[in-house]
Design a protein that fits this description.
Elements lengths: L1 H10 L3 H22 L3 E10 L5 E12 L3 E3 L5 H7 L2 H21 L6 E5 L2 H5 L3 H12 L6 E6 L6 H14 L2 E7 L6 H6 L4 E4 L1 H5 L5 H16 L3 E4 L5 H9 L4 E2 L10 H9 L5
Parallel strand pairs: 2-4, 4-5, 5-6, 6-7, 7-8, 8-9
Antiparallel strand pairs: 1-2, 1-9, 2-3
The structure holds ligand C2E and magnesium ion (3 copies).
One magnesium ion binds next to strand 6.
Protein backbone atom coordinates (compact mmCIF):
# COMPACT_ATOMS: atom_id res chain seq x y z
CA UNK A 1 0.00 0.00 0.00
CA UNK A 2 2.78 2.37 0.84
CA UNK A 3 4.36 1.95 -2.55
CA UNK A 4 1.05 2.70 -4.21
CA UNK A 5 0.47 5.84 -2.20
CA UNK A 6 3.99 6.94 -2.95
CA UNK A 7 3.30 6.31 -6.62
CA UNK A 8 0.18 8.46 -6.59
CA UNK A 9 1.95 11.34 -4.91
CA UNK A 10 4.76 11.10 -7.44
CA UNK A 11 2.24 11.34 -10.30
CA UNK A 12 1.44 14.95 -9.56
CA UNK A 13 4.96 16.05 -10.32
CA UNK A 14 6.27 13.85 -13.09
CA UNK A 15 4.87 14.01 -16.60
CA UNK A 16 5.74 10.41 -17.52
CA UNK A 17 3.94 8.95 -14.59
CA UNK A 18 1.10 11.35 -15.18
CA UNK A 19 0.77 9.92 -18.65
CA UNK A 20 0.91 6.53 -17.15
CA UNK A 21 -1.96 7.48 -14.85
CA UNK A 22 -3.91 8.89 -17.78
CA UNK A 23 -3.50 5.77 -19.86
CA UNK A 24 -4.63 3.74 -16.89
CA UNK A 25 -7.72 5.88 -16.65
CA UNK A 26 -8.28 5.48 -20.39
CA UNK A 27 -8.01 1.75 -20.12
CA UNK A 28 -10.43 1.79 -17.23
CA UNK A 29 -12.99 3.73 -19.26
CA UNK A 30 -12.43 1.52 -22.26
CA UNK A 31 -13.03 -1.50 -20.08
CA UNK A 32 -16.30 -0.02 -18.84
CA UNK A 33 -17.47 0.52 -22.42
CA UNK A 34 -16.02 -2.82 -23.50
CA UNK A 35 -18.20 -4.69 -21.02
CA UNK A 36 -21.30 -3.04 -22.51
CA UNK A 37 -20.14 -3.66 -26.07
CA UNK A 38 -19.34 -7.28 -25.32
CA UNK A 39 -15.71 -7.01 -26.37
CA UNK A 40 -14.82 -9.66 -23.80
CA UNK A 41 -14.99 -13.35 -24.50
CA UNK A 42 -14.13 -16.60 -22.82
CA UNK A 43 -11.78 -19.40 -23.77
CA UNK A 44 -12.03 -22.87 -22.28
CA UNK A 45 -9.08 -25.04 -21.31
CA UNK A 46 -9.66 -28.75 -20.72
CA UNK A 47 -8.86 -30.43 -17.41
CA UNK A 48 -7.84 -34.06 -17.77
CA UNK A 49 -8.31 -36.88 -15.29
CA UNK A 50 -4.94 -38.61 -15.23
CA UNK A 51 -6.02 -42.19 -14.49
CA UNK A 52 -8.57 -42.36 -17.28
CA UNK A 53 -7.17 -39.75 -19.64
CA UNK A 54 -10.67 -38.30 -19.95
CA UNK A 55 -11.50 -34.63 -20.07
CA UNK A 56 -13.52 -34.04 -16.89
CA UNK A 57 -13.69 -30.28 -16.75
CA UNK A 58 -12.72 -26.97 -18.19
CA UNK A 59 -11.44 -23.65 -16.92
CA UNK A 60 -13.05 -20.44 -18.18
CA UNK A 61 -10.42 -17.80 -19.00
CA UNK A 62 -11.41 -14.29 -20.02
CA UNK A 63 -9.89 -12.34 -22.96
CA UNK A 64 -10.49 -8.85 -24.27
CA UNK A 65 -10.79 -8.06 -27.92
CA UNK A 66 -9.79 -4.40 -27.62
CA UNK A 67 -10.96 -2.25 -30.58
CA UNK A 68 -7.50 -0.65 -31.02
CA UNK A 69 -5.02 -2.74 -29.06
CA UNK A 70 -6.26 -6.08 -30.35
CA UNK A 71 -6.37 -9.21 -28.26
CA UNK A 72 -5.46 -8.64 -24.61
CA UNK A 73 -4.58 -11.39 -22.13
CA UNK A 74 -6.07 -11.25 -18.62
CA UNK A 75 -2.69 -10.24 -17.19
CA UNK A 76 -3.02 -6.99 -19.13
CA UNK A 77 -6.36 -5.90 -17.66
CA UNK A 78 -7.37 -8.02 -14.65
CA UNK A 79 -5.06 -6.18 -12.20
CA UNK A 80 -6.54 -2.82 -13.25
CA UNK A 81 -10.04 -4.28 -13.17
CA UNK A 82 -9.32 -5.43 -9.63
CA UNK A 83 -8.06 -2.03 -8.56
CA UNK A 84 -10.92 -0.07 -10.09
CA UNK A 85 -13.64 -2.44 -8.97
CA UNK A 86 -14.66 -3.16 -12.57
CA UNK A 87 -13.81 -6.78 -11.88
CA UNK A 88 -17.17 -7.11 -10.15
CA UNK A 89 -19.34 -6.53 -13.26
CA UNK A 90 -16.73 -8.24 -15.47
CA UNK A 91 -16.43 -11.25 -13.19
CA UNK A 92 -20.19 -11.44 -12.99
CA UNK A 93 -20.37 -11.51 -16.77
CA UNK A 94 -17.71 -14.25 -16.98
CA UNK A 95 -19.47 -16.40 -14.41
CA UNK A 96 -22.83 -16.05 -16.11
CA UNK A 97 -21.41 -16.64 -19.60
CA UNK A 98 -19.38 -19.66 -18.50
CA UNK A 99 -22.38 -21.26 -16.80
CA UNK A 100 -24.66 -20.56 -19.78
CA UNK A 101 -22.15 -22.28 -22.08
CA UNK A 102 -21.70 -25.24 -19.76
CA UNK A 103 -25.44 -25.66 -19.35
CA UNK A 104 -25.90 -25.41 -23.12
CA UNK A 105 -23.45 -28.29 -23.65
CA UNK A 106 -25.34 -30.35 -21.10
CA UNK A 107 -28.62 -29.59 -22.84
CA UNK A 108 -27.06 -30.69 -26.13
CA UNK A 109 -26.50 -34.10 -24.55
CA UNK A 110 -22.77 -34.04 -23.88
CA UNK A 111 -21.54 -35.68 -20.69
CA UNK A 112 -21.84 -33.05 -17.94
CA UNK A 113 -18.52 -31.52 -16.93
CA UNK A 114 -17.42 -29.18 -14.20
CA UNK A 115 -16.61 -25.64 -15.21
CA UNK A 116 -14.03 -23.73 -13.15
CA UNK A 117 -14.31 -19.98 -12.89
CA UNK A 118 -11.70 -17.68 -11.33
CA UNK A 119 -13.00 -15.42 -8.59
CA UNK A 120 -11.19 -12.22 -7.74
CA UNK A 121 -10.69 -10.86 -4.25
CA UNK A 122 -13.30 -8.15 -4.77
CA UNK A 123 -15.90 -10.65 -5.91
CA UNK A 124 -15.07 -13.04 -3.10
CA UNK A 125 -15.45 -10.30 -0.52
CA UNK A 126 -18.84 -9.19 -1.80
CA UNK A 127 -21.70 -9.27 0.59
CA UNK A 128 -24.03 -12.17 -0.22
CA UNK A 129 -21.79 -13.58 -2.94
CA UNK A 130 -23.31 -17.04 -2.52
CA UNK A 131 -26.86 -15.67 -2.86
CA UNK A 132 -25.83 -13.85 -6.03
CA UNK A 133 -24.20 -16.93 -7.52
CA UNK A 134 -27.19 -18.98 -6.42
CA UNK A 135 -29.50 -16.62 -8.32
CA UNK A 136 -27.40 -16.91 -11.47
CA UNK A 137 -27.41 -20.71 -11.29
CA UNK A 138 -31.17 -20.85 -10.72
CA UNK A 139 -31.78 -18.45 -13.58
CA UNK A 140 -29.67 -20.59 -15.91
CA UNK A 141 -30.97 -23.85 -14.50
CA UNK A 142 -27.49 -25.18 -13.81
CA UNK A 143 -26.84 -27.71 -11.09
CA UNK A 144 -24.30 -26.17 -8.64
CA UNK A 145 -22.30 -29.41 -8.56
CA UNK A 146 -20.97 -28.49 -12.01
CA UNK A 147 -19.47 -25.20 -10.88
CA UNK A 148 -16.07 -24.87 -9.24
CA UNK A 149 -14.78 -21.52 -8.03
CA UNK A 150 -11.06 -20.82 -8.00
CA UNK A 151 -9.73 -18.51 -5.31
CA UNK A 152 -6.12 -17.78 -4.37
CA UNK A 153 -4.34 -18.26 -1.08
CA UNK A 154 -4.17 -14.52 -0.45
CA UNK A 155 -7.98 -14.36 -0.33
CA UNK A 156 -7.97 -16.57 2.76
CA UNK A 157 -5.69 -14.22 4.63
CA UNK A 158 -8.53 -12.85 6.73
CA UNK A 159 -9.46 -16.26 7.99
CA UNK A 160 -12.73 -15.43 9.73
CA UNK A 161 -14.14 -13.59 6.72
CA UNK A 162 -12.92 -16.21 4.26
CA UNK A 163 -14.36 -19.00 6.36
CA UNK A 164 -17.81 -17.39 6.37
CA UNK A 165 -17.82 -16.83 2.62
CA UNK A 166 -16.52 -20.31 1.86
CA UNK A 167 -19.04 -21.96 4.14
CA UNK A 168 -21.95 -20.22 2.43
CA UNK A 169 -20.57 -21.10 -1.01
CA UNK A 170 -20.19 -24.72 0.00
CA UNK A 171 -23.76 -24.70 1.28
CA UNK A 172 -24.83 -23.59 -2.17
CA UNK A 173 -23.29 -26.81 -3.49
CA UNK A 174 -20.41 -25.46 -5.57
CA UNK A 175 -16.82 -26.70 -5.25
CA UNK A 176 -13.88 -24.51 -4.22
CA UNK A 177 -10.28 -24.79 -5.33
CA UNK A 178 -7.16 -22.90 -4.34
CA UNK A 179 -5.48 -21.64 -7.50
CA UNK A 180 -1.73 -21.06 -7.94
CA UNK A 181 -1.17 -23.10 -4.80
CA UNK A 182 2.27 -22.77 -3.28
CA UNK A 183 2.88 -19.18 -4.33
CA UNK A 184 0.99 -17.58 -1.43
CA UNK A 185 1.26 -17.70 2.29
CA UNK A 186 -1.50 -20.00 3.43
CA UNK A 187 -0.54 -21.83 6.56
CA UNK A 188 -1.18 -25.50 7.08
CA UNK A 189 -3.49 -24.49 9.87
CA UNK A 190 -5.72 -22.63 7.39
CA UNK A 191 -5.58 -25.44 4.95
CA UNK A 192 -6.85 -28.07 7.34
CA UNK A 193 -9.79 -25.99 8.50
CA UNK A 194 -11.02 -24.22 5.37
CA UNK A 195 -13.93 -25.91 3.55
CA UNK A 196 -12.16 -26.40 0.21
CA UNK A 197 -12.10 -29.26 -2.29
CA UNK A 198 -8.98 -28.92 -4.40
CA UNK A 199 -5.48 -27.51 -4.69
CA UNK A 200 -4.15 -26.41 -8.05
CA UNK A 201 -0.37 -26.67 -8.02
CA UNK A 202 1.04 -23.50 -9.52
CA UNK A 203 2.60 -23.96 -12.91
CA UNK A 204 5.88 -22.40 -11.79
CA UNK A 205 6.59 -25.64 -9.85
CA UNK A 206 5.49 -27.91 -12.68
CA UNK A 207 7.60 -26.09 -15.24
CA UNK A 208 10.98 -27.47 -14.19
CA UNK A 209 9.84 -30.50 -12.29
CA UNK A 210 12.15 -32.72 -14.38
CA UNK A 211 15.20 -30.47 -14.03
CA UNK A 212 14.91 -29.03 -10.56
CA UNK A 213 14.93 -31.38 -7.58
CA UNK A 214 13.43 -28.73 -5.34
CA UNK A 215 10.46 -28.25 -7.65
CA UNK A 216 10.00 -32.01 -7.82
CA UNK A 217 10.06 -32.19 -4.01
CA UNK A 218 7.50 -29.38 -3.74
CA UNK A 219 5.10 -30.93 -6.24
CA UNK A 220 5.40 -34.31 -4.60
CA UNK A 221 4.85 -32.83 -1.14
CA UNK A 222 1.78 -30.83 -2.17
CA UNK A 223 0.29 -33.92 -3.81
CA UNK A 224 0.84 -36.11 -0.79
CA UNK A 225 -0.36 -33.45 1.63
CA UNK A 226 -3.52 -33.00 -0.43
CA UNK A 227 -4.09 -36.74 -0.39
CA UNK A 228 -3.84 -36.84 3.39
CA UNK A 229 -6.15 -33.84 3.75
CA UNK A 230 -8.57 -35.55 1.35
CA UNK A 231 -8.34 -32.75 -1.18
CA UNK A 232 -8.12 -33.24 -4.92
CA UNK A 233 -5.05 -31.98 -6.78
CA UNK A 234 -4.72 -30.48 -10.22
CA UNK A 235 -1.37 -29.70 -11.77
CA UNK A 236 -1.29 -26.53 -13.87
CA UNK A 237 0.92 -25.85 -16.85
CA UNK A 238 1.68 -29.41 -17.95
CA UNK A 239 3.52 -29.08 -21.24
CA UNK A 240 5.22 -32.42 -21.89
CA UNK A 241 4.94 -36.16 -21.33
CA UNK A 242 7.80 -36.33 -18.85
CA UNK A 243 5.99 -33.94 -16.53
CA UNK A 244 2.79 -35.92 -17.02
CA UNK A 245 4.47 -39.20 -16.07
CA UNK A 246 5.99 -37.60 -12.99
CA UNK A 247 2.59 -36.25 -11.93
CA UNK A 248 0.96 -39.64 -12.40
CA UNK A 249 3.59 -41.17 -10.11
CA UNK A 250 2.68 -38.57 -7.48
CA UNK A 251 -0.98 -39.63 -7.67
CA UNK A 252 -1.99 -36.22 -8.90
CA UNK A 253 -5.69 -36.44 -9.88
CA UNK A 254 -6.03 -34.03 -12.76
CA UNK A 255 -3.89 -31.89 -15.01
CA UNK A 256 -4.25 -28.88 -17.20
CA UNK A 257 -1.78 -27.52 -19.72
CA UNK A 258 -0.64 -27.04 -23.29
CA UNK A 259 0.19 -30.77 -23.54
CA UNK A 260 -3.55 -31.40 -23.73
CA UNK A 261 -4.61 -28.08 -25.19
CA UNK A 262 -4.33 -24.35 -25.04
CA UNK A 263 -7.48 -22.49 -23.99
CA UNK A 264 -9.96 -22.73 -26.90
CA UNK A 265 -13.05 -20.94 -28.14
CA UNK A 266 -16.33 -22.62 -27.20
CA UNK A 267 -16.69 -23.96 -30.73
CA UNK A 268 -13.18 -25.42 -30.84
CA UNK A 269 -13.59 -26.92 -27.38
CA UNK A 270 -16.80 -28.58 -28.43
CA UNK A 271 -15.25 -29.95 -31.63
CA UNK A 272 -12.15 -31.31 -30.00
CA UNK A 273 -13.32 -32.48 -26.60
CA UNK A 274 -17.09 -32.94 -26.59
CA UNK A 275 -18.16 -34.12 -30.03
CA UNK A 276 -15.71 -37.03 -29.89
CA UNK A 277 -17.03 -38.56 -26.71
CA UNK A 278 -19.37 -41.52 -26.66
CA UNK A 279 -22.25 -40.51 -24.47
P1 LIG B 1 -4.91 -19.08 -13.78
O1 LIG B 1 -6.28 -19.08 -13.23
O2 LIG B 1 -3.86 -19.73 -13.00
O3 LIG B 1 -5.07 -19.73 -15.24
C1 LIG B 1 -4.10 -20.52 -15.87
C2 LIG B 1 -3.24 -19.71 -16.80
O4 LIG B 1 -2.18 -20.51 -17.27
C3 LIG B 1 -3.98 -19.23 -18.06
O5 LIG B 1 -3.39 -17.99 -18.46
C4 LIG B 1 -3.62 -20.32 -19.05
O6 LIG B 1 -3.73 -19.90 -20.39
C5 LIG B 1 -2.19 -20.57 -18.68
N1 LIG B 1 -1.74 -21.91 -19.06
C6 LIG B 1 -2.45 -23.06 -19.10
N2 LIG B 1 -1.70 -24.09 -19.45
C7 LIG B 1 -0.45 -23.62 -19.65
C8 LIG B 1 0.80 -24.23 -20.03
O7 LIG B 1 0.91 -25.43 -20.26
N3 LIG B 1 1.90 -23.42 -20.10
C9 LIG B 1 1.80 -22.08 -19.84
N4 LIG B 1 2.92 -21.36 -19.93
N5 LIG B 1 0.65 -21.49 -19.47
C10 LIG B 1 -0.46 -22.25 -19.38
P2 LIG B 1 -4.28 -16.73 -18.86
O8 LIG B 1 -5.48 -17.17 -19.62
O9 LIG B 1 -3.37 -15.72 -19.46
O10 LIG B 1 -4.78 -16.22 -17.46
C11 LIG B 1 -3.90 -15.69 -16.51
C12 LIG B 1 -4.58 -15.44 -15.19
O11 LIG B 1 -5.57 -14.43 -15.29
C13 LIG B 1 -5.33 -16.66 -14.64
O12 LIG B 1 -4.43 -17.56 -14.08
C14 LIG B 1 -6.25 -15.98 -13.65
O13 LIG B 1 -5.56 -15.73 -12.45
C15 LIG B 1 -6.55 -14.67 -14.34
N6 LIG B 1 -7.88 -14.77 -14.98
C16 LIG B 1 -8.24 -15.28 -16.19
N7 LIG B 1 -9.57 -15.20 -16.39
C17 LIG B 1 -10.09 -14.61 -15.27
C18 LIG B 1 -11.42 -14.24 -14.85
O14 LIG B 1 -12.42 -14.46 -15.54
N8 LIG B 1 -11.53 -13.64 -13.63
C19 LIG B 1 -10.46 -13.42 -12.83
N9 LIG B 1 -10.65 -12.83 -11.64
N10 LIG B 1 -9.21 -13.76 -13.18
C20 LIG B 1 -9.03 -14.35 -14.40
MG1 LIG C 1 -7.43 -20.39 -12.42
MG1 LIG D 1 -3.30 -20.88 -11.68
MG1 LIG E 1 -3.65 -17.17 -11.40
Amino acid sequence: HNAKEFGLEWNRYTPTLQMHAKSRLDLENEMRIGIEREEFFIEYQPQVHLNSGLVVGMEALVRWNHPLKGLLAPGEFIPLAEESGLIVPLGDWVLRQACIQNKLWQTMGYTPMVISVNLSMRQFRQFQISEQIGHILTEIGMDPQYLELEITESMTFDKEAAFGQLKSLKKLGVAISIDDFGTGYSSLHYLKSLPIDRLKIDRSFVKEVMEDNNDAAIVSTIASMARHLKLKVTAEGVENHEQLEFLKLQDCHDAQGYLFSKPLSAMEFEDRFLSQQVS
